[in-house]
Automatic annotation (TrEMBL):
This is histidine kinase. Residues 529-752 form the Histidine kinase domain. In the N-terminal section; belongs to the phytochrome family. The keyword Endoplasmic reticulum does not apply. Its EC number is 2.7.13.3. The keyword Transferase applies. It catalyses: ATP + protein L-histidine = ADP + protein N-phospho-L-histidine. It is an enzyme of class 2 (transferase). Residues 146-304 form the Phytochrome chromophore attachment site domain. GO terms for molecular function: ATP binding. SMART domains: GAF (SM00065), HATPase_c (SM00387). InterPro entries: GAF, GAF-like_dom_sf, HATPase_C_sf, HATPase_dom, His_kinase_dom, HisK_dim/P_sf, PAS-like_dom_sf, PAS_2. It comes from Flavobacterium ginsengiterrae. Keywords: ATP-binding, Chromophore, Kinase, Nucleotide-binding, Phosphoprotein, Photoreceptor protein, Receptor, Sensory transduction, Transferase.
Length: 757
């Protein structure tokens, strides 16, 4: 019968080590031996060193039935152990081979039962001792609160149990770069605590094996690999998967790496969290060292203590900050806000907007207007960033702690290294910013020189001197609770914007309804005036002209002249009335065209146009500084002109007319007719006044309180003023005292950009 080994002799270098089949090396470490049984319990594989442990060679075993070599009783023990899943995952099988006691671990590998045997440790620790140590550890563990404290305790406890010179808790980041998170070592050794190691130190296939097999042991770094032999039955690719093996031989690249570090023996325990490799318990010894299966189990339990506590301890570590974030979110969402865009200024001025995710700045973008809080970029940069994000992704959310990777234009700005972005809808957005945090990382050697090239070719780095790296252009990582808080508030803000839009639509419909109601009333009045006020002068004209035509030869020239004067006056009254009707009906809802108007300029212009009337009336106009309001320029001229003309028309004959114009000097919220206004202007005269019961009536179109012969006019002037103020979103009221004078007060709406004191 012919035999051959299954050693993988493919040349492995650092250029192809990422693809090294480390799970099928075809060899083991020499501190034990391996036997592989097929489904029929025939010996399919055997290591060359079995003769070092008993008086039999691999050539005597391969191809034989297991029972024919070791006896039926031994085979039954093996089968009982295989069928007891609860035991084989924890304790090795103690069994006698050829009069010698061994501890055997068994696992199944693609139809092959792999038996790995080590001589029973003569001074092995009792299970009671391990139990006592475990109880002590659990007691101490309960006294720790943070994950870092727990890991430090595990490092110390593992070193006490195993006796290794150095025990490190090694934690991976998202890219599998490692950090020595906790450490316990001999006092004479240089500490590695806080050092970082590049992901290339532990290749992907090695990390995959750490997940499958949670305990890895190298007893002597200087060992010579022992080949595994099998019957040469001419089958191609005949190998043995040793992913779950305790004795599996290690990659020569990894061995050289450890030699470069000066390590003599290692024990590695995987820390699996949510089915992902979270980290390792890495034990180093500076001479060869082996430990019993019981101690291995105790060390493995230490790792399980960590993984079982990761979520709890990380939650404890972040609980206070998360609580503060939650409190800020509750306070922010609990603020009573008006249903207007003014509320966005209130939100931006509220410190909780930044506190909910510990940001240094925030920008709310609504209808192309930006409301800012804290430190934020320029408006142009904000809009450019939004466009950049929308061009890269269709996602409604985006977050990063290194914005320069996606938006290089921000690389030079240390204030905007990280962002959380939420799209509220197609045109509205919110962005939180976080400033740059410059950090220093101490690497165990230059991570860029993990592979060294010299005259001997490529080999692992042999320098582990501390190498400092300065990290710039990135912020602290956004914690999940911060991202969650930002998401929750974005939904709240979106709902608030929807309520604002609904309120605006409701106001628009209400205003349109009022306008329609006013229009219907106006049409009724216009119909009335057309059948009354217009017909009266027409009747006069018709009567006078008819009389003149019938008595033309008998009427003196003076009477003809007087009659024509009367006709002219009647025609003039008709013309004035028609002009006023035309002015009134031309005023439309122009709120969309409102702009800033300086009322001082309006008054100056009106006084200039009315210069002759003012001089003729001998009126004195006294005015304070007038505000800048949100209105329409030409309508304000018409408004001021009508109010002043009204004061002149109804001036008292007993005294010289005086008009005093006062106004609010700063924006102030004023309630009037259940609405809020920001500015007011008051026109006060000393004319004939009116009884207060007519305060509403005087603003109705074509309404007069006096006889046409006493005071001329169409009755449109003040109605025109009211319509102008409605058009700009304002209001007007009149206060009269009969025989003393009249106050006419106008109210202006708030400018969206206006800041209230």
């Amino acid at each position: 019968m012919k035999f051959r080994d299954i050693v993988n002799r493919d040349i492995v270098t650092l250029t192809n080590c990422e693809h090294e089949p480390i799970h099928i090396p075809g060899s083991i470490q020499p501190h034990g031996f391996l036997i592989g049984l097929n489904a029929g319990l025939k010996i399919e594989f055997c290591t060359a060193n079995i003769s070092s442990f008993m008086d039999v060679g691999y050539t005597d075993l391969l191809g034989k039935d297991f029972s024919s070599v070791f006896g039926r009783r031994t085979q039954e023990q093996i089968l009982d152990y295989i069928n007891n899943d609860k035991i084989q995952d924890v304790f090795p099988l103690e069994i006698i081979f050829f009069g010698k006691l061994f501890q055997v671990s068994i696992h199944k590998s693609y139809g092959i039962y792999v038996l790995e045997a080590e001589p029973k440790f003569p001074d092995r620790e009792k299970l009671a001792d391990v139990y006592t140590q475990t109880i002590q550890f659990v007691t101490q563990m309960n006294n720790t609160t943070s994950l870092k404290d727990l890991c430090a305790l595990v490092a110390q406890g593992t070193r006490e149990i195993t006796g290794y010179d150095r025990v490190m808790i090694y934690r991976f980041d998202e890219q599998y770069n490692g950090e020595v998170f906790a450490e316990s070592c001999r006092e004479d050794l240089e500490p590695f605590l806080g050092l970082h190691y590049p992901h290339t130190d532990i290749p992907a296939q090695a990390r995959e094996l750490y997940i499958k097999n949670q305990l890895r042991l190298i007893v002597d770094i200087e060992y010579e690999p022992v080949p595994i032999f099998t019957v040469d039955d001419e089958r191609e690719n005949k190998n043995l998967d040793l992913s779950l093996s305790i004795l599996r031989s290690t990659s020569p690249i990894h061995v050289q790496y450890l030699k470069n570090m000066g390590v003599g023996a290692t024990l590695t325990i995987s820390l699996i969290h949510h089915d992902k490799l979270w980290g390792l318990i890495a034990c180093h010894h500076y001479s060869k060292k082996n430990i019993s299966p019981e101690i291995r189990l105790a060390a493995k339990l230490q790792g399980q203590f960590i993984t079982s506590q990761i979520d709890i301890r990380e939650a404890n570590d972040e609980n206070l900050n998360a609580k503060n974030s939650s409190t800020a979110l509750e306070e922010l969402t609990g603020i009573e806000l008006p249903l207007s865009e003014k509320s966005l200024e209130i939100i931006a001025d509220t410190p909780q907007l930044l506190q909910i995710c510990n940001a240094s700045g925030a920008a709310i973008i609504v209808r192309d207007k930006i409301y800012k809080s804290g430190v934020v970029p320029s408006d142009e940069q904000i809009m450019d960033l939004i466009g950049h994000i929308k061009s890269r992704t269709d996602d409604k959310t985006f977050s990063t702690n290194k914005l320069s990777d996606y938006y290089p234009e921000m690389k030079q700005s240390s204030d905007f290294a990280g962002i959380i972005y939420h799209s509220l809808d197609s045109i509205n957005h919110i962005i939180w910013y976080r400033h740059e945090t410059i950090s220093e990382i101490n690497w165990g050697g230059d991570p860029e020189k993990a592979i060294v090239k010299d005259s001997n070719g490529l080999h692992p780095r042999n320098s582990f001197n501390i190498w400092k790296q300065i990290i710039k252009n990135q912020s602290n990582i956004w914690k999940q609770y911060e991202i969650n808080a930002a998401t929750k508030y974005s939904h709240t803000l979106h709902n608030h914007l929807m309520m604002i839009m609904l309120s605006e639509e409701e106001e628009k419909y209400r205003t349109q309804s009022e306008i329609l109601k006013e229009t219907n009333s106006e049409l009724e009045n216009i119909n009335w005036i057309s059948t009354h006020d217009l017909q009266e002068p027409l009747r006069k004209i018709q009567m006078i002209t008819s009389k003149m035509l019938t008595e033309l030869d008998a009427i003196p020239l003076e009477s003809i002249s007087a009659s024509l004067v009367k006709v002219s006056k009647s025609a003039g009254r008709m013309r004035i009335l028609l002009e006023d009707i035309l002015k009134y009906t031309r005023i439309k809802n122009t709120r969309d065209t409102l702009q800033k108007v300086n009322l001082n300029d309006i008054l100056k212009s009106v006084k200039s146009e009315m210069k002759e009337n003012i001089k003729e009336s001998n009126v004195i106009i006294v005015s304070e500084n007038l505000p800048e309001v949100h209105a329409v320029n030409f309508l304000m001229k018409q408004l001021f002109s009508n109010i002043i003309q009204n004061s002149l028309k109804y001036a008292s004959e007993e005294r010289s007319p005086i008009i005093k114009i006062t106004a609010s000097q700063e924006p102030e919220l004023t309630g009037h007719l259940n609405k809020i206004y920001c500015h007011w202007v008051n026109f006060s005269d000393n004319g004939i006044g009116f009884e207060q019961q007519f305060a509403e009536t005087i603003f109705k179109v074509f309404t007069r309180l006096h006889n046409q012969n006493e005071y001329t006019g169409s009755g449109v002037g003040l109605a025109l003023c009211k319509k102008i103020m409605q058009t700009v979103g304002g209001a007007i009221e009149a206060v009269g005292k009969l025989g003393e004078g009249t106050d006419i007060k106008i109210y202006f709406p708030c400018d969206p950009e206006e800041t209230l004191m």
